[in-house]
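Why should sequence recovery work at all? Because a backbone constrains its sequence more than one might expect. Tight turns favour small or flexible residues, buried strands favour hydrophobic ones, and helices have their own preferences. The token representation captures these environments compactly. In the example below, the structure is given first.
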């Protein structure tokens, strides 16, 4: 609590607490390694305090400040000069649940986030800002494939693993032509805030240098509902104005993202595993 008291003292000294009644509530941090608190002023949630490794705080701060004009992202209120914590606006709502249709919230993501990403310089390395930098995007995908394959194991037949590996090699031809963008990097329903069945916020970036299609397909595959071609193609109609991606390329990226998602599901979302396996049986038919 001593650290929390120091944070409160700093925020008070900055005039951010308005002499209000102050209350801190620890939040469920989910897959986030740090500690999160909701700061309530006169019983109303006002800010989120995130305490984490300085590298994570720094990359979170940089991302939110770089995209401070994007309405679905929280605003940075205060960032500790040593990057021990960051304070940003609280977005009312809930994650995962009562999210409305995938077509609707994906449309909002395309319009309000994915099409507003910034390009980065060609000499910037691919991969996680806080992770191991890669010389090509294909290198990043190969590591993702290996990790997913280890997690999935016998849950899929060897033939499926082999065909996905071939797909990764096929996608290399597209990746050699991709432009680099500064991405959120963790665009899944666990990081989307919904209010009244509408997407209103995107939280907890894990900044990534990659092609924009990564965040698009990651979001699309982050829940097993409406994970079908009938939902994908109308979204692609919105997306294709901002990317040279073809339908064939898009489907390949979705299949690969779905494969890696199954691996993640086994580790952290086992309740969704049967639903993802059913979806996989449909998408695997597109594997050549």
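From this structural description, the recovered sequence reads:
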């Amino acid at each position: 609590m001593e650290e929390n008291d120091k944070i409160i003292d700093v925020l008070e000294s900055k005039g951010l607490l308005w002499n209000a009644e102050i209350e801190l509530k620890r939040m469920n941090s989910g897959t986030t390694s740090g500690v999160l608190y909701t700061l309530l002023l006169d019983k109303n949630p006002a800010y989120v305090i995130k305490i984490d490794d300085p590298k994570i705080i720094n990359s979170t701060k940089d991302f939110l400040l770089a995209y401070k004009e994007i309405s679905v992202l929280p605003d940075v209120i205060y960032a500790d000069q040593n990057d021990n914590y960051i304070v940003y606006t609280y977005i009312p709502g809930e994650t995962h649940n009562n999210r409305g249709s995938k077509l609707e919230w994906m449309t909002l993501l395309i319009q309000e986030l994915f099409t507003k990403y910034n390009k980065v310089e060609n000499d910037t390395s691919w991969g996680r800002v806080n992770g191991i930098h890669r010389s090509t995007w294909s290198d990043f995908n190969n590591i993702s494939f290996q990790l997913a394959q280890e997690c999935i194991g016998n849950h899929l037949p060897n033939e499926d693993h082999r065909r996905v590996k071939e797909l990764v090699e096929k996608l290399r031809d597209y990746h050699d032509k991709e432009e680099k963008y500064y991405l959120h990097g963790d665009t899944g329903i666990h990081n989307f805030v919904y209010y009244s069945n509408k997407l209103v916020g995107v939280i907890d970036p894990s900044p990534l240098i990659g092609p924009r299609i990564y965040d698009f397909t990651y979001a699309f595959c982050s829940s097993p509902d409406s994970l079908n071609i009938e939902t994908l193609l109308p979204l692609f109609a919105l997306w294709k104005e901002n990317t040279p991606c073809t339908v064939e390329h898009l489907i390949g990226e979705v299949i690969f993202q779905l494969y890696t998602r199954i691996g993640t599901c086994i580790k952290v979302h086992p309740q969704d595993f049967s639903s993802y396996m059913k979806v996989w049986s449909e998408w695997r038919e597109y594997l050549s």
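A few observations help interpret the result. The radius of gyration is 20 Å.
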